[in-house]
Each structure stands twice: as structure tokens, then as C-alpha cells.
């Protein structure tokens, strides 16, 4: 402590300092805990409470799940948590029953990787991280209902995650009813022959394995052999959303390859239309809605079947949005992973196969095998990139164009993906640039079927690129039974679609970019699947009585990883090494007695626990059901302005637009369809907070150096005598620029940190951290303290007198503005208004009690500890937390007078002080009678008077 500060503390022993702040904050945090200050009562269940509180309007405020890192929090992490806390506190004071709590998303890769590196069990390290994070968050004074907190790794929690999985597994989507239904209803349809089996045999004659395969094609959770994103460096498969644009793992930055594995999937595609349509009623940022719409990717077109030559039962099904160009299809392309490729490939190249088509290989099988390995090394983005040279090989097979009857060759090429459409395309090279480039490279024919609007003509041999248009005539498109010539694109689409449907070789349909959600991981630290397999390989759901299926202990937590660049590998899961757990004898209660089973050894992805956590917050100790219906309806049910129900405010990062948010919406809709919840959507209002950034300093090698040790001299930055560069970026331990909340709390107090983070700028905008600027909010609190407490004696100095009119106006204007800002999450401008009022009060010789109390109440959501202390010192025995938030008197909000500018010929000649309610007629008369205006007119006539009461009069002389 400096000599100056020490002397100041002696002279003012009751000054607001960091030490006093620490004492105040610790005492009030203990008080809140002891008195259950932030506990929100439910209408029923073990959290039922004050009937009067439940009768109030409710407000459910949520933050996105934090992941407990071993590094703890830096000051960027609490930005959203402080904001929701301020919002929740404000609404408690405006008469709401507020549910605000926080849990921990604790399964997943980081804890497992740490366990692999250190030998510490993931649960041990994760629970330690949670305790540290709880301590840091408590120090910030966050008003959470601690009774409702949990972690996804708690067996009592993931029991219900497993239960929800079983609800999804035991359901199918009925497209006619547009809802999920129990799988038993589908079995009844097959058993009664209301719905025929795929091969027409009676349901009773099918084996259990055959029935399981049929039902698997309908279940909302199903296992299948499908192309997946295999990451050898992590030893696991990844969802599309976990792969970066350059084809690497989001975590670890390892190469990702395409492979075929048996994996669990969620049939989220069944809900594509509803996921799109219901966005309209959500109060979300338009940018997030657009990302979801683009990810779902709805497009209208037609499905068309192309028969494969010499394969009586084989057909290539394509989806196209340009069925009007069918006559221009001169070849076909399958994705290298397409399941039909191996079925149609011949033993030898057909006679007349061009050398350009074979890739230099002696057989089609060799060519395909080599090309698949080449394609597997590329990301989807790389495969779709516009490159000059297109690659591919001929499969040796031909198909028949259904409208022209022409035989067209079938290729595989990496620019066609299994992740979109059917994984096959009809290539119309004259009217698609990628097809055009491929056709030129492989000497394939092309036919113009859309008349060019330029002067290129229809001879494609002279073209430099394809011609694409939705506003042109169709040409060269006449067959034996259908002609499109002369029609516009829209008319041609309708005619050809009708023709296809009449011959049962195609139909108008809608396609989505959205793929089913890959739902299994080859990891240890995740929820076990409540699934076992019998000796025939049939999957069986565990009965509810066997839940939770707890994660067993294993000696080695790590999945088997491989050379990151070796695509010719496959997963080995840690759970598979625990033979005693994997191979079990169980009685599933199906009347067949105890039988041997093998457990599923994959685990659920880390997204599973966060798909439904809002529901557990409502009813965290319910061991009988997912959530009490009355409680769920109270907090989440539909209401005016929220037709789909959901959380009232959900705050988190925009990076979760197409991961967590899409998955949680899907689970919510399934649970709604099955009657478990009343809310179709989980989150009604979404708000994306910005990021707190920090300067990163790097030396000549590009290595980050400790930001706290960098000095600024002569507009340059120096570290240990060496000049370093500065760039604004993320805050983090690895960048050596992290500032912990503990540091700021120790130097200034938690209330100062809260105020600074809220005052830095608009909540939804990223902003740079500047430790030197924190002191500004510290001084605001010191001035507030001095307005109430004598720094020398510690006595309260307010007086029981009425404030003067100027102070009343300052107070009520602040109340009015702060209320509006609180509702709109504009906390930075709310602080500015409080600061302005506080500065006004410092100039008042004796501070009236009513003004001091109003000021304390205004700042209490933002700085709750000092507000509680001042409120108690002002003589109140109750906590400030549920005191009514001040209401402005309209009479004092409106200015008593307004300055009106009077112009003659556009130049200001007078300024009038008038009432805000002055009429146009009154204002015109006042302006024309003003001596300065009379002098300016100098007897001239008046052509026009323009009045904009109460602020402007513009006089135009004749």
C-alpha cells in the first residue's frame, strides 16, 4: 500500500476500499445462502413454497451450460453470467418469481484428455474443477438457486438423459400425423397388415432380427452402418458440426476422414420442416435463425429414378431442383461412398471405355478402390471447392435416362457428397459449371436444353462455361411421350414432375441439407447407452428399473488413437476393455427370463446432457419422473407472446447456433409429441453476448509473452527489453493474457468487477479488456458510499427532508431510463444514467433519504453487495433483493421547459424556453412576437411559418 493510500485510510477509516468491499461481500454472500434468498418456489413438488410468490408472473432466466475447466475462470467467462444475474435481480424487484440457477456440463473430451495425460480419473478432476468454479462464481455474488444446481455427470441426472434416449429409441415419426408416436403403434400397424412389410410377408412370419431391421428404419434413434467422420488422431468419430471448414477436428485440429462404421444416430431429419417453421415464433437474433435455416437447407425439386443397365433391380435415385433439365443429363455421378457402387461395378471395363475414364487402372474395382482412398483424405469443403481440375473414375456401369431413353455412363467423383440429397446426381453439363468442367475433363457429351439469353447459341462445343438460368425457355427436350420445348422453367418443372409421377419413376419432393445426428462416440467419459445386444445382434432397451446405467471404472480411459494421417484405421472404445461390464446376463422383464447380452460400448456425445437441462432446473430432485407436469407448465408452458413456450431468456455464445441449439430443439419436440412436456421449444428468447477480448503480445518468434509484464514506451511495447507486437484477440491461459476475476475482486471488489463488465459497452458486442479502466467503476461506488456514509465516522449522513425539484427530476429521469435499459439488457447505458444521478447527488449539500434509497435500489441489480450494505445502514431490516424497483413519476420525467430554436431564412434569431406541451399555434405566436424575430423581419411579410413544436420554428419571409 502506498504512503498516500495509507494516510487516506487513517483519515477516512470508513472509506469504501477493497478490504471493506471484501468484508461486505463475504458477509452478504453468507447471508443469502443462510436465508435462501434466491430460492424460487415451484407450484408443487419438494421445491414448492410461498403461494404468493408462485402467484406472481414468472421469469425463467438461463445461461448456457459452462464446462468446468481446470484453468478456472478468466474475466471473459462471467460476462453472460453477470448479465443474466442483473436481469434476474431486476425482475425479482419488479414482482416476478424468478428462476435463475446454474449447473455444469461435465462429460466430454477435455476431462478425458486430462485424465489420459495425468492418470487422474475424469470424475476427480472434473469435480475439483466444478468446486473451484462454484467458488469463483459465488464470489461474484451471482443470485443462483443453489438447490437446483447439478452436473451432467451425476448419475441422478444422466439417468434421465438415458431415459430420454429410450423414449426416442422407442418412437417413430408418423409423417401423416406429423408427430412422434410410440414404436408399439407402428408394430400394431405391421401386425394387423395395415402397413405392409417391405417384402410383403406377414409380420408374424418374420424373425426377431428381421423385425428389428424393419423397425430400425423408422426409429428416431437407430444404429446403422453409415459414412462417418473418422478422426484417427482422437480415436473417435465426429458429427458434421464438429469438423472445421478445412476438414479437421474442432478439438485438437487433427485430420478427419470418411469411413463406414456402425453408429447410433438421431433421426433429426424427420423434424426438418418443424424445426424450420417454428423458428418464426422465436425471439432469437435473425443471424442465428438464418444459420439454422441454412443448416437445415430446405429445397424443393423432384426425386427421379435412373435404371441401371444390366441390373434388373438396381436404380440410381437422384434429387434435383432442376427436373426441367432432365433431357440434358448425359452422365451420372455417385459419391465415392455411395452404397450402390460396389453392387453395379463390373469385373472388367466395358468395350469402348475411354482411357480418360479409367484413371490408368486395369479394372473398375481397382480404379474405385484407389479413388476412394484419395477422396477420403479430403474434407467436404475441399471436395466442394471450385478447382480447375475435376477428378473421378468411371464405375464401368451405365444407367438409362428415363425421359430420353439414352444410355449414360456412371462415374464416382469427390465433388458429390453423401451428406446432401441422395449422394448421386444427374449431370447436366451444359447448365452446371461443375458438371461442365467434369465433362470437359472426361470428354463427355453435353446438350443445351435451356436456351441461352446471350449470343453463344446452342452449340455447346463452342462454350467456355455452362449457362444457368431460371428465366429462359426449354429447348431440345422432346421425347416419345413428353415434350418441354418452349416452356418456361416453372411450367417445365410442373409438367415433367407430373409425367414422372404418372409413370412411378419419380415424384415432386422436398430435400434438406440437414443430416441425421451422429450420436455415438468412441470415448470413455460420456453417458453409457441403455442398450444391450442379444446373441443375434438385436438391440434391446434396458427397462427403466435398470436406470441409471452407471459408467463403470476402467484402468485405461483413452480410446485407441492412431497416426493422425492414417485413414485405414477403426475405433476401439475404452469400455470394450471391461469384459465384466460388457458381457452380462440380464432379465429384461420381457417374459424370456435371464439371457446373455453384450452392452453397447460407445458413449453418448457431450451434447446429450445439454439437450434437456432446462427441464432438470425445474424439478431437480424428482426421482419418479422427468419433470412434474404442473411445474413444467408453470415455468415453460405456452403463454401470450410465447406460443411455443420455453425459457424466457437464454444467454450464451453465438457459436452454438447449429449444435446445441438445434439438438435441444429436436429433443424438446420429441418430448412434446410424446406428452412429456407442454413446451414445443426449449428457449423462447435467445440473446448472444459478445466476447471480452484482450491484447496478445508476441515476441520475434511469434510466441505469446505475459501481457501483465509488457511495458508501453514511446507508442511501442516492450517485454524484458525486447520490442513485441500487440494484437487484439481472445483471452486465455495459452495466450498469456488471462486476467482472473479473483485478481480484480482482490484489488477492487466483486461489485466493481460486475459494474465494469456491464459498463464496457453493449452486451452483444465484443470489447477489449482494460484493467486500468476498472478503477472508474470503483470510484463510482466510492462516491455512492460517500453520499450515504461519512468516511470518518461511519455514520449515515442522509436527512429526512424533501429533495429540491432539480434533484427530483434527476432521480425520476434516472429511474425511467434505467427501467427501460434493464428491460432491454442495455446495462452499459443504465450504469451511465446511475452515474449521472450519483454525480448530481454528490453536489447536494444534504442528501435526502428518499434520493439515497432510490439510488441504492437502482444500482442493486448491478452491485448487490454494496446495495445490501447501504440498504441495511439506511435502516431497513429486509434484504434489498425483493424490494420494489423504483417507479418514475411522469411529472418529473418530462422536462419543465424545452428550448425552441427560431430561424428566419434558415438562420437562428432567437431561442425560446417553452413548455413541452406547447401547441403549434401557441409556439408560432410566441416566435412571431419575439423582439429579435421582429427585428430580423424588419417589416417584411411572411410567406410561410414551419412549426415543429416544441423545438423548432422556421419563418420564411415573403
Q: What is the approximate shape?
A: globular
Q: What is the CATH architecture descriptor of the largest domain?
A: 3-Layer(aba) Sandwich
Mean pLDDT: 93
The helicity comes to 25-40%
Q: Helix/strand/pairing class, anyone? A: alpha+beta
Total count of domains: 5
Task: Report the end-to-end length measured between terminal Cα atoms.
Answer: 74 Å
Summarize the main sheet: 6 strands, mixed
CATH topology of the largest domain: Rossmann fold
Low-confidence regions:
none
DSSP strand tally: 31
Task: Quickly count the helices.
Answer: 31
Q: CATH-wise, what's the superfamily of the largest domain?
A: HUPs
Rg over C-alpha atoms, rounded to the nearest angstrom:
35 Å
CATH class of the largest domain: Alpha Beta
Assess the beta-strand content as a share of residues.
15-25%
Account of the protein in words:
With 958 residues, this protein is α+β, with helices and mostly antiparallel strands. It has 5 domains: 9-38 and 740-894, Orthogonal Bundle (Isoleucyl-tRNA Synthetase, Domain 1); 54-170 and 219-294 and 514-573 and 601-691, 3-Layer(aba) Sandwich (Rossmann fold), CATH 3.40.50.620; 298-512, Valyl/Leucyl/Isoleucyl-tRNA synthetase, editing domain (Isoleucyl-tRNA Synthetase, domain 2, Alpha-Beta Complex), CATH 3.90.740.10; 693-729, no CATH class; 895-957, Ubiquitin-like (UB roll) (Roll), CATH 3.10.20.590. It has 31 helices and 31 strands. Strands 22, 23, 24, 25, 26 and 27 form a 6-stranded mixed β-sheet that branches. A hairpin with a 2-residue loop joins strand 24 and strand 25 (716-719). Helix 22 crosses helix 23. It is globular, with a radius of gyration of 35 Å. The termini are far apart.
